[in-house]
């Protein structure tokens, strides 16, 4: 009898967050009493179907191990690469080789700086993407009017054209795919020097269309320091920032 598919969380956390500023990488910034990374990990663990969450950091990172020491469902992997795609691929190869995750298992790749993921959105993603051949990702329909721009010789940014938004969605995470398929897709993209902005884009290069599952506003990514305050407000933690 075939073993049922399992679900594993994978959180790349090897970046330094240059746009965030300051001496502390954004994943270790405090959001209330917990770091951004802890909240992102806890959000992934909220669904009991997620067997384990792997946090992927650089070899000289010691903070993640301290944060999750002794946690039965969290393991820190020190295999982060030069770019996010390299980090995800290194982790996937490690899981496939060392932990016997196979081609029937799903991996949910989640940004370390998205602490606002809700349980309902996570459940919805697992429920719906599990039935789709390619897997899927959380995303939100674009609400704002979009402008394609040019930059003049004087440095001014001017409108070139308005871009129709009817079919545009803003990708979020988690993005859920079969572990082996995602590893093969990223490997191929890196070999061909294809620029990857997320994991779904690697799957798309194989001619496969992932399923879109509607996300939510609170699941925004922290990129700049001001975003920390925005997320704190969305999560009701605005009075608990350091």
From TrEMBL:
<dbReference type="InterPro" id="IPR029044">
    <property type="entry name" value="Nucleotide-diphossugar_trans"/>
</dbReference>
<protein>
    <recommendedName>
        <fullName>2-C-methyl-D-erythritol 4-phosphate cytidylyltransferase</fullName>
        <ecNumber>2.7.7.60</ecNumber>
    </recommendedName>
</protein>
<keyword id="KW-0808">Transferase</keyword>
<dbReference type="InterPro" id="IPR034683">
    <property type="entry name" value="IspD/TarI"/>
</dbReference>
<comment type="similarity">
    <text>Belongs to the IspD/TarI cytidylyltransferase family. IspD subfamily.</text>
</comment>
<dbReference type="InterPro" id="IPR018294">
    <property type="entry name" value="ISPD_synthase_CS"/>
</dbReference>
<dbReference type="GO" id="GO:0050518">
    <property type="term" value="F:2-C-methyl-D-erythritol 4-phosphate cytidylyltransferase activity"/>
</dbReference>
<feature type="site" description="Positions MEP for the nucleophilic attack">
    <location>
        <position position="221"/>
    </location>
</feature>
<keyword id="KW-0548">Nucleotidyltransferase</keyword>
<comment type="function">
    <text>Catalyzes the formation of 4-diphosphocytidyl-2-C-methyl-D-erythritol from CTP and 2-C-methyl-D-erythritol 4-phosphate (MEP).</text>
</comment>
<dbReference type="Pfam" id="PF01128">
    <property type="entry name" value="IspD"/>
</dbReference>
<dbReference type="InterPro" id="IPR001228">
    <property type="entry name" value="IspD"/>
</dbReference>
<comment type="pathway">
    <text>Isoprenoid biosynthesis; isopentenyl diphosphate biosynthesis via DXP pathway; isopentenyl diphosphate from 1-deoxy-D-xylulose 5-phosphate: step 2/6.</text>
</comment>
<feature type="site" description="Transition state stabilizer">
    <location>
        <position position="26"/>
    </location>
</feature>
<keyword id="KW-0414">Isoprene biosynthesis</keyword>
<feature type="site" description="Transition state stabilizer">
    <location>
        <position position="19"/>
    </location>
</feature>
<feature type="site" description="Positions MEP for the nucleophilic attack">
    <location>
        <position position="165"/>
    </location>
</feature>
<dbReference type="InterPro" id="IPR050088">
    <property type="entry name" value="IspD/TarI_cytidylyltransf_bact"/>
</dbReference>
């Amino acid at each position: 009898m075939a073993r049922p598919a399992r679900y594993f969380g994978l959180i790349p956390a090897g970046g330094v967050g240059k746009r965030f500023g300051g001496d502390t990488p954004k994943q270790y910034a405090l959001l209330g009493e917990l770091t951004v990374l802890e909240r992102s990990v806890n959000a992934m663990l909220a669904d009991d179907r997620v067997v384990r969450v792997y946090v992927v950091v650089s070899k000289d990172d010691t903070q993640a191990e301290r944060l999750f020491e002794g946690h039965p469902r969290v393991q820190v992997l020190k295999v982060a690469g030069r770019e996010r795609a390299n980090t995800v691929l290194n982790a996937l190869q490690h899981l496939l080789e060392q932990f016997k995750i196979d081609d029937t298992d799903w991996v949910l790749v989640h940004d370390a700086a998205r602490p606002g993921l809700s349980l309902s959105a996570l459940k919805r993603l697992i429920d719906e993407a599990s039935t789709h051949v390619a897997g899927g990702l959380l995303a939100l329909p674009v609400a704002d009017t979009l402008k394609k721009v040019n930059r003049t010789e004087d440095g001014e940014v001017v409108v070139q054209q308005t871009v129709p938004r009817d079919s545009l969605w803003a990708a979020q995470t988690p993005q859920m795919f079969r572990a082996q398929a995602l590893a093969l897709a990223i490997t191929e993209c890196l070999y061909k020097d294809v620029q990857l902005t997320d994991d779904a884009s690697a799957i798309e290069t194989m001619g496969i269309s992932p399923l879109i599952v509607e996300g939510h506003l609170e699941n925004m990514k922290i990129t700049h320091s001001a975003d920390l305050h925005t997320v704190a407000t969305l999560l009701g933690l605005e009075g608990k920032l350091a």
